[in-house]
Amino acid sequence: MARLAPDQRAAATAPPGPVLCVAPAGSGKTTTLVARIAWLVATGTDPARITAVTFNKRAADEMASRVDTALEPLGLSVGAVRVKTFHALGREILADGGERIEPLLDRESVLRDIWPEIDRGTLRRLDDAFSRLKLDIGVTAAEVATDPEPGPIARAFLAYESAIEDAGGLDFDDLVARALRLLEARPRILGRWRESCRHLLVDETQDVDRSQLRLALLLAAPANDVFFVGDDDQTIYRPALYAGPVPANWALTCASLGRAPSDALLKDLVPLFIRERDGLLTVSLVLFLTG
Ligand SMILES: Nc1ncnc2c1ncn2[C@@H]1O[C@H](COP(=O)(O)OP(=O)(O)OP(=O)(O)O)[C@@H](O)[C@H]1O
Ligand SMILES: [Mg+2]
Questions:
Q1: What's residue 232's pLDDT?
Q2: Which segment of 85-99, 140-154, 170-184 scores lowest on mean pLDDT?
Q3: Which residues line ligand 1 (CB under 6 A)?
Q4: How much distance in Å is there from the Cα of 26 to the middle of ligand 1?
Q5: What is the distance between the alpha carbons of residues 226 and 52, in angstroms, rounded to a whole number?
Q6: In the chain, helix, strand, coil percent, each to 5?
Q7: Is residue 95 a contact partner of residue 180, using CB atoms and an 8 Å limit?
Q8: Which residues contact 271 (CB under 8 A, 6 or more apart)?
Q9: Each residue's pLDDT tens digit, 202-261
Q10: What is the CATH number of domain 6-74+194-290?
């Protein structure tokens, strides 16, 4: 804690409630998140009630080892705090609910099995469209099947989903999408996971998609002790993000709050998203903020 800059320390020791830290690449965001975890443990939080999530496996592995190093002086063993990717978390939630978690099918292989002649461009378009249906809109094949006049994408989606069903498996997007549905349908399991995520920390927030954000908000409720950390300009999903959960240009958002983006701590920025966004996310954020 002593080596943190004042804004990092302020973020790491912020009082309970939603916190969003936005700062440039390499400026010490993950360091702040790890310090937050160490501070929570040092001030008496049960490590089993802390969960940190991030977008990809490499970042999760790196964060896990930084968390372990930070917690070692506090006498905690390796892995005492759960650090996962959203997909691994979804997988664990599905397993907990007794749902199938394998075989995990590769979307491209499944599409090539159905349409051996499919070209690369079509593959990419279908891949994007399916992820939008599953993750942004959150619809199931059963819901798409109710469309009396399905278009080509809807028909392809139904063929794909039925191939997945026939194989008795699931795809990568399903890990999060199905975990969300499971938690929404089963209050006992949701309650258990809310205990494990009583203090939830999300790194690389600029890269999370709508389903991942919804999962984080669902798990963090009703206490909403959720600590989001993100970059203002290194998203890998910029075009998707434009219609997605987080303002495309966080720096602009910061400026509209009258603060420089380098002020790492932007407490209560989350309500601003409501005024800027509408649709599904707004609903979940309103629920999030009103408990
Ligand atoms: N207050 C500080 N004093 C000195 N070094 C620091 C401080 N904060 C972070 N660092 C160092 O700066 C480097 C980058 O930190 P960190 O990984 O936390 O940044 P980041 O913002 O998460 O980066 P990225 O954008 O790549 O995710 C690390 O080597 C870290 O140890
Ligand atoms: Mg980082």
A1: 57
A2: 140-154
A3: 3-5, 8, 25-31, 231
A4: 5
A5: 10
A6: 55, 10, 35
A7: no
A8: 285, 289
A9: 998 877 887 888 898 889 888 878 888 877 554 443 333 333 344 433 333 333 333 333
A10: 3.40.50.300
